[in-house]
Design a protein that fits this description.
Blueprint: H1 6-14, H2 21-48, H3 55-79, H4 92-102
Helix pairs in contact: 2-3, 3-4
Length: about 110
């Protein structure tokens, strides 16, 4: 990522209090809660119908675990400054190290 231009730095300084960290954490929390409930309801429905668990059920569970890991990693990124303007990031090196490691399944193209 290139360094911000002088105009971008000026904009960021004028809007220094802008912070989307709370919105990021809230969105992750709501989506993850819905995902957990949906997967739990699926397993409960299988149990109540006395249906055996298939490969798709286990794949969904693995997907949920990956989603939980992704949210945990992105939450660490928020603690390093994700959701804030670049001029407010206190340790950009740490954020640059944590961000790729926290989202290995993200499209890098």
């Amino acid at each position: 990522m290139a360094a911000p231009s002088p105009a971008e730095i000026q904009y960021q300084l004028q809007h220094i209090q802008d912070d989307q960290s709370d919105q990021i954490i809230s969105a992750f929390g709501v989506c993850l809660a819905f995902a957990i409930v949906a997967v739990l309801l699926r397993f409960v429905a299988r149990h109540l119908n006395k249906a055996s668990l298939g490969g798709d059920d286990w794949a969904i569970l693995v997907g949920l675990l990956l989603a939980i890991g992704y949210v945990a990693g992105q939450s660490v990124c928020v603690s390093y400054g994700l959701g804030k303007h670049a001029v407010r990031v206190t340790d950009p090196v740490a954020l640059a190290r944590v961000k790729p490691a926290s989202s290995p399944l993200q499209n890098r193209g």
